[in-house]
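<instruction>
Derive C-alpha cells from the sequence
<data>
Labelled lines for chain and fold
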Amino acid sequence: MIFGSKSAIGGDLAQILSRPKPSLLWLNMASMIPEEHAKRRFAQNPKDADFYQNPYAFYKRLHQVGGPVFWEDYGFWCLCEFDAVNDCLRDARFARLPPVGFNQPTHPPHLKDFALVEQHSLLQLEPPKHTRIRKSVNQAFANRRVQEMQAEIEMLANQLIDQFESNGETDLLTSYAMPLPVIVIAKLLGVPTSECDNLLNWSHAMVRVYTMTQTVEEEQLANTAAAEFRQLLLSLIADKRKNPTHDLLSHMVQQTPDALSDDEIVSTAVLLLNAGHEATVHQLGNAVYTLLNLHWHTDWIDNDKQADQLIAEAMRFDAPLHLFTRYAQEAVDIYPGITIEPGEQIALLLGAANRDPNKFENADTFNPVRRDAANVSFGAGLHFCVGTPLAKLEMRIAINTLFKRLGNLSLKDKPQLKDSFHFHGLENLYVRW
C-alpha cells in the first residue's frame, strides 16, 4: 500500500523507490528490524524550557533519522518531513475524528461549556457537515472581500503606532501584534470592538486546552471563558436577526437555504477568533523578531510580490503552530514495518516539516527569495486555513507599516517564548527606536 496523496498512487514505481530519503510514499515491502524501531523512539518533555525555547534543535535530531519517529511523551508516531506532512494533510485516510465505531474524543464534566462551544467547530468536522458550515464563511474570506479591508487595516496599524511612537520603546506584542488582529476579526464578525479585551482573555484561556499539556485549573478557566463567549455571541445573534448589518454574523444568521443553527454559528465564530487571532499574533511576533534578530530590513520591498515572499518565508522559518494531529480511518502503512491502525492518532510536526533539509536548501537560513519556497503553516487539503488571505494581508500591512513608521527599530531585550510548544509564540517583544 502506498501512503500519499491520490496523485502519488499509480506514479512511477522506479521514481518512488529511487528517492534519496524515506518519505510517506513507500511500499510496504518488508518489516523493519527491531533496532531500527529503537532508533525512531524519542523522549522529549514538551514542557522543558530548553526545548520550547528552541524546538528546532530537536527537529534536527529527528531529520537525521529520517522518516516517522515515535514521540514517547505523547505516545504517538510523528511525521517530520515536508512531503510526508503535506501528503497526510491531503489524505482522506486521515481525519480530525476517529472512524465510525471507535470511541470519539470527549471532554470531562468540568469542560462541559467548552465542549458545547466546540461541538460544531470546523476543526472537528468532516464532510458533509464540514462542507456545509465552511461554505457559509468562505465568502467573508474571499480575496476580493479581504482586499476591501486593506485601507481599514492600514488605518488601524497606523493608529496603534500613534499610541506608542513617542515613547521610544514598547512591547510590540501587547501594543501592536495582539490588538491589530483581534480588532480586525471583531469587525469582520460584527462583535463590538469594546469587547476586544474580553475576546483576548477568552481566546488566551481557551487555546490552552489545545496544547495537550494543560492543567485542570487551566481547563476550568477555559470552560468559564467558553461560557462567557457563548453568552455574548448568542446575544449578538439575536440582535443580528432583528438588525442585520454588513458583517459575518449577520450573513450566517440571514443566509438561506440550509441556514446554520445558533450553536453552529457560535462554534464557527469562536473558531475564527481563537484559531485566526492566536496564530496571527504569534506569526506577526515571530516574524518581526526574526527580521530584527537577523538584521533584515524591509526597505527592499517595493511591490506586493516581494512582500508576499517575505511573509511566506517568515511563516516557513518560524511558524506559529507546530503540532497537529489526525486519526487513521483505516490501517495505513506509513513506513516499512510501521502501520497506523484505525482509530490511532498520528502527529504532524509542522515546524519540523518547514525546516526539512531534504526539501529546503539551507533550511535553517532565513531567505525570502529562496527558489524552493513553500510551507505547511496554513495546513493543506480539506482543512486548509479558511482565513489565509486575511492573515497574509494583515501580516503584510502590519510589517510594512511598522518598519516604515519606525525605520530604526531594534530589539531592546531578547524575548522568551511561551511555555506552549503547540502554539509557538513569544511572551513579549520589547523594542526601541
User: Anything to note?
Assistant: Residues 191 and 236 are 8 Å apart (CA to CA). The chain has one domain: 13-432. The domain at 13-432 is CATH 1.10.630.10 (Cytochrome p450).
